[in-house]
Amino acid sequence: MSDSQKFTISCHQCSLNGLCIPTSLTFDEMDVVDAEIKRAKPLQKNATVFETGDKFTSLYAVRSGALKSYTLDLSGEEHVVGFFLPGEIIGLDAIDEGQHPTSIKTLETSALCEIPFDQIEALSKKIHNLQTYMYKLLSKEIREDQQLHFLLSKKTAEEKIGTFLLNLSGRYKDRQLSPTLFRLPMSRTDIANFLGLAVETVSRVLTRLQRQQVLKVDGKEVEILDHNQLCLVAFNECPNG
Amino acid sequence: MSDSQKFTISCHQCSLNGLCIPTSLTFDEMDVVDAEIKRAKPLQKNATVFETGDKFTSLYAVRSGALKSYTLDLSGEEHVVGFFLPGEIIGLDAIDEGQHPTSIKTLETSALCEIPFDQIEALSKKIHNLQTYMYKLLSKEIREDQQLHFLLSKKTAEEKIGTFLLNLSGRYKDRQLSPTLFRLPMSRTDIANFLGLAVETVSRVLTRLQRQQVLKVDGKEVEILDHNQLCLVAFNECPNG
DNA sequence: CGGATGGTTGATAGTCATCAAGATGGGTGG
DNA sequence: CCACCCATCTTGATGACTATCAACCATCCG
Fold it and tell me: B144 — contact with chain A (CB < 8 Å)?
């Protein structure tokens, strides 16, 4: 198999699994899009993809692994902005100013697809669904940020952590992975930082939920034992009544 | 002057002041865009523009006034998601799902331009700068939400309110209004709700900042007396060293 | 004038941060 | 292969910030 063939195949996977463009691109259109997506580049744990202030040229689709985005304030304190799992797109916050407002680091060995943004701009004028996809992708991020806003401003520590776990669970489920048994790719410190809590609080809540038979926690391994109860903790409500 | 002429003129203002498309549309292109923007519709105080779950068809550019977006949780509690001032665009969070995740109410008499989204989609394939503008607009919102995330998860009540006031100040300044003397269009309750604080805390912080000669507060009228000091309160830092 | 809404002020209590110390565990080098 | 070490995590004790409860004041409007 020639190198360019492998490339095309890997990039078809990008379109289908990585970029997740959901519908109705023709195969020809997919080829055009794929041709612009650069080969996935593998990165070790703790590698920096880009840093605050770096020039923005490309979006990145996560193929495998997990990453965090963060900023540093003047006193050097880290602020975790979000986490990225396979299938998610990195860099949407950088389009506006042409430089990245956040830094990105891998939390474990990861692979990314680089997608030059000027190509997206050019192609999205020709391929209607790609433009629609981009608008929806950006809009979805805004909507999710609003939910996060609610989480951070109104919820207790227990609700925050419950919601966080359910969110991760849902994202794993979307990727055909187990929604009840998974591994936290990030440290307790990162979780605490992201949720605006102290590490100690995260630790305490997790052990409390474990004592209550809602979770089983072993280091980074988490098993959701009682999904309904976890929903109650997170939302004060339960999907089945 | 014919009705259609008036329409065009009002809509040129939309492009320049309302939509704030910053650069390089030709006059012909502006005419095309403007032709699709519906006449500003005036709304009284406390009017509902749309509600959670309503079908999404248009974005709205604020021409005058002020609005808030909010959701209601199951117990009927309101959660204020954000505020909109003249020149800002409402509805970006609705593109993804095709229905509005939030409700919008006017905080005072306001006027909006309705911009059908299918027209934006169609035109942004023809007019490069419009597509770029839309990408940047959406991206900017994401970036600002990240800053809000930081505000809510890490800052104290005083820092939150200081930052909130400076944010408003900046937005008024962008609109050629006084950045030091302005009127809060929203109630203390809305501010508290938005920032994840109790009304009492907002009230206390405002009076404290007034005692410290940082602000002058009279009901909804606010005057920033000591901008540097307010920056210190908000960010622990001061623009001039 | 009186009720309603919104805002301010005071007293108390609860949640969570902070400080401190111990436990666990993964990685490295001897 | 083991021992050590550093980072991460957990657990406990204390205290601070801010929510809550309660009362009072101002303003608006019928």
Answer: no
